[in-house]
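Sequence design from tokenized structure. All designs in this work follow the same two-part layout: the structure record, then the generated sequence. An example of the structure record is given first.
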């Protein structure tokens, strides 16, 4: 890890801080109230704020995966064969130092920050693919836009990856309020949400849980996260919101990801909830396929790039 240096930008409505460690958002305040919306990483509950998940989302079965070695790291005379690599939950980008490469406003004058992480000898030992990962933050009114770009700089190798968000929002937002009086709005006419369930090693089981929705909203109960994260596939919605006891949404997230997670630590009564758009998820239990066979992976041909974003609107 490097020095924990935060860069602060503001548009007079919203002020954010971002660390070069993981290019992680560490603070998000409304200027008129000074209220902090982002979880402040108390290690009693969870030591992070809003990590970026890359090059995997979730866990690989038994903490390892199989892939072909990359030409650039094969030893002389070594055969081109499948290898096994170890990789921890959510990959490694969140624990690496990014470089700030742009802090100038955009063409419309909106404050923004842009960070980059490049593959190196350390990453190639556990993920044998060259990459360039850019993470950007832009302030537009009450909206914080988070921008991802993944590039494949190789001339002759495809790049297989997953990427996801993990921002944690204070819930309850105010003293005297109870988390169990809050709701999560799915902006849907559906009467229920079907969620995958994690099991051994943080991998997906065959079990599913069904939770009722009332007017598109899921009630936050004391037992909601007893089985870990709620994993929602099938592109059920492209919008989520945390709703206060008075019925007002105080953070609304929009995204185009194929699935998402909702999480708070099991059994801790933690005062935050994560809303997590994902382009990927954990392996299924007992999955022994190769990296190319993992579900929800994105593949980039040499020289190609992948662009995605999500927004957070604060009230």
């Amino acid at each position: 890890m490097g020095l924990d240096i935060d860069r602060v930008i503001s548009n007079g409505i919203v002020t954010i801080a971002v660390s070069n460690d993981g290019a992680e958002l560490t603070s998000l305040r409304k200027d008129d109230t000074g209220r902090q919306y982002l979880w402040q990483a108390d290690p009693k509950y969870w030591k992070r704020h809003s990590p970026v998940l890359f090059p995997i989302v979730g866990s690989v079965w038994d903490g390892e995966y199989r892939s072909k070695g990359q030409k650039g790291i094969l030893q002389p005379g070594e055969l081109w064969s499948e290898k096994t690599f170890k990789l921890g939950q959510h990959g490694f980008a969140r624990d690496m130092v990014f470089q700030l490469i742009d802090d100038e406003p955009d063409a419309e004058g909106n404050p923004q920050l842009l960070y980059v992480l490049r593959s190196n000898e350390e990453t190639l030992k556990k993920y044998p693919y060259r990459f360039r990962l850019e993470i950007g933050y832009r302030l537009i009114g009450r909206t914080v836009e988070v921008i991802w770009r993944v590039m494949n700089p190789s001339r002759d190798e495809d790049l297989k990856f997953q990427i996801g968000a993990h921002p944690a929002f204070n819930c309850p937002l105010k003293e005297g309020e109870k988390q169990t009086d809050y709701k999560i709005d799915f902006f849907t006419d559906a009467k229920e949400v079907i969620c995958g369930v994690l099991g051994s090693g943080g991998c997906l089981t065959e079990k599913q849980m069904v939770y009722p929705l009332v007017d598109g909203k899921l009630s936050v109960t004391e037992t909601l996260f007893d089985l870990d994260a709620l994993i929602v596939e099938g592109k059920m919605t492209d919008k989520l919101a945390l709703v206060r006891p008075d019925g007002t949404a105080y953070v609304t997230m929009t995204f185009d990801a194929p699935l998402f997670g909702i999480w708070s630590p099991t059994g801790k009564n933690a005062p935050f909830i994560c809303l997590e758009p994902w382009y990927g998820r954990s392996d299924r239990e007992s999955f022994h396929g190769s990296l190319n066979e993992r579900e929800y992976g994105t593949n980039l041909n040499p020289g190609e790039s992948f662009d995605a974003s999500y927004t957070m609107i604060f009230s």
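The chain has one helix and 24 strands. We note this feature because it recurs in several other targets discussed in the main text.
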